[in-house]
Amino acid sequence: MNFSSARQYFYQEIQQSDEQIDLAKAALYIAQEEYPKLDPEEYLNALDTMAWELQERLPDSRYPLRIVQSINQYLYDDLKFSGNKIDYYDPRNSFFNDVIDRRLGIPITLALVYLEVARRIDFPMVGVGMPGHFLIRPNIPDIEIFVDAFNGGEIIFAQDCEERLSQIYQQTVTLQPEFLAVVSNRQFLARMLTNIKFIYLKQQELEKTLAAIERILLLFPNLTLELRDRGLISYQLGNYPQAVNDLQHYLAKVPDAQDASVIRRLLTELGRD
Questions:
Q1: Of all residues in the chain, what percent carry a pLDDT higher than 70?
Q2: Which end of the chain has fewer CB atoms at under 10 Å, N or C?
Q3: What average pLDDT does this structure show over 31-57?
Q4: What fold characterizes domain 5-180?
Q5: Domain coordinates in residue numbering, the chain
Q6: H runs (alpha helix) in 56-184
């Protein structure tokens, strides 16, 4: 595989077992494709420094709610991290180095700051892939609270999650257990990359869209919709052999897909059906 050095580092990181993947490093390797001169160690050291400063502020009691409150005060009151509600789709909100530098982000990237700082003070937390709004929670038995890293570390409960989902989708949503499922490290990275993919697709930055798709497929090679999208973007970029290969594989996997007739017409246009 002829990857850039940043892509090679990302690829090497995700070859480990899921629990061994270092999310901060992987996220910085994602950013390194955007910023080739980025030094990941600089930002890993910044996270270490945050954790050291936070450790000095922790209460004697290690009760989970007290720890969450201490993290919140440090990240949001002292360091002024916040959700970028004014320009949510600014690509910088999705790159981990920018989030640390600017102290602005979207739910998943602010959640990553929170998770990494919490991990460094030995406070176990996990990501929760709620549709439309990423959350985190303490990974402690019988503690059923969620933390909204985008909204100042607000502590919420399952009922609040149901209300938020109804607001996001502008209709009544009944909470399903899978909506609050813990995400794996690979799923976490794929969700970050999916955000980047759609931001750049909306901006018609096709090369950057393709780069995001390719890394999602490194994480999950069998995602049929990503295979299709790589084929369609490759077609738009004039890489017809790649487009044909991906679109043929897509149809082989899901011959009855809703868009199968459109894909077949495209393949006919390319002289391959």
A1: 98
A2: N
A3: 97
A4: C8orf32 fold (3.10.620)
A5: 5-180, 222-269
A6: 64-72, 96-102, 107-120, 158-169
